[in-house]
């Protein structure tokens, strides 16, 4: 059972784990990625227009798009970080899977329709259509910060973990990842990024599956693994503790997680760009639906890996083995330990880590090049020739590659669990961006002053709490008991604790990081609305058609018509889709219109499309 401790000598260097086959497998991954990049550099339109380089000619099918969507934010951080989390704190984190339902349905039916129908190239173009140029630039700059910091974590994680246990040269690995990725992204554009994502996602799943199968076999089978994790209290029951400072509960993961998912899958340029590269809107929605099973699979694989790891080491502290207290390094140690003596498998797992990292970094490069081009350069140099713009986009993708190497060094200096660092970044910077888009889409009264003030306040509060939390110790894991009686008693217990805990700033700082997205999103909306009402709310007729999602109308669709009209301050003017506009004001032609049926589905019940025709034509 868990009594005996596995003491092992210091891990041997890479040479011992790695056979020729392993190096070959790893080299094949890099070579195949480069080959895909080269293929798209030389085929099709040969990447000579920004439409092809950044939008994949808007011709993609849903299957590659969906695999690419899950690859964007599933990096080595999740592959290493989630097993480490499960090993230390139990399976509570798995409940984040509940948030995927609404976290994908809302993007599919709210954000995709609005953004796809406006035919934008960058998600931030929406902000100019809805508010003003200033808001667009603020949004773009915020996004650039988010992705650059996140990329640093992504490049650093696999390099750090491999270095800790196999002796792979740390900065050499960082440099190789960054360079390979920069090369194929720059050569092949979004098509190469999406198709390498598909290939890399498959490698990622294969690597995780291999570790789990070998691990289960070597720890004595499924029932033995189950017995050990059960005895070790690692199977967590549903924790319904309402305390928002509790790190992981059903509420922080299942509800807070929805906002995290919305900020990633709803408004993040990396994902929006994939929706927009789909050949039709239906295809984009379908790809979003197809993310659900793959994301659940990815989550399940990494959670099960954590459980198998627990069954192997029974909660031992890794520091006595590794000379580092990092759980992340321990996951790699476990994998190399499991796969020892099985030529090819260590190589497959390293390929899995790098696939996960490369697919994320390439999405980040391409989306960063896109927003810099579309939002910061093109509007000010309208006369730039297409070939020059494409060349510049490539130069941008390459220079972001170099910048991300610098950011990897910053992550090196931070030293928290990488999963928590990544999710904190999503919450602190992605949350306010989600708030900005929500303010625009759901609140027709919000004006541009309110939006800028809201975003500024949101970011300030986010960093205040985020940085404050570093200095406040968060509560660790507590033992789990799954009986109903225990659950009831603990609920009462939690509530009394909730009201007797220290209040003020310290409580504020210890807000669970899983609430960051939601909290920061609401700060932006609240401040945005207050400032908008103070400075004069936007008039209905000034709002660009198609930029508002008739949320109130949709939510109140069960009410009788006259009541709805009273409650819902929207006129039909704001609820129309943008399909009749010839030009969205930014030089992008509206290509194909929507069918009557699609247009009607976008309107709240009771608003006949004939009204829309009168106001638009
Ligand atoms: C984005 C989620 C939360 C979706 O489950 C997951 O992929 C995750 O935890 N990602 C961590 C960041 C990363 O893997 O780079
Ligand atoms: Na990835």
Quick tags:
617 residues, mainly alpha, Sodium/glucose cotransporter, disordered N terminus, disordered C terminus, binds pantothenoic acid
- Tell me the major beta sheet: none
Residues in β-strands, percent: under 5%
Alpha-carbon Rg, integer: 25 Å
Order of helices and strands: HHHHHHHHHHHHHHHHHHHHHHHHHHH
**The CATH homology group name of the largest domain:** Sodium/glucose cotransporter
Q: What small molecules accompany the polymer chains?
A: pantothenoic acid, sodium ion
Assigned CATH class of the largest domain: Mainly Alpha
Question: What overall geometry do the principal axes of the alpha carbons give?
Answer: globular
Q: Report the helical percentage.
A: over 70%
**Can you name the CATH architecture of the largest domain?**
Up-down Bundle
Q: What fold name stands as the CATH topology of the largest domain?
A: Sodium/glucose cotransporter
Annotation, overall tally of beta strands: 0
Tally of domains: 2
Distance between the termini: 75 Å
Summarize the structure.
Interacts with PDZD11. This protein has 617 residues and is an all-alpha fold. The protein folds into 2 domains: 62-528, Sodium/glucose cotransporter (Up-down Bundle); 552-614, no CATH class.
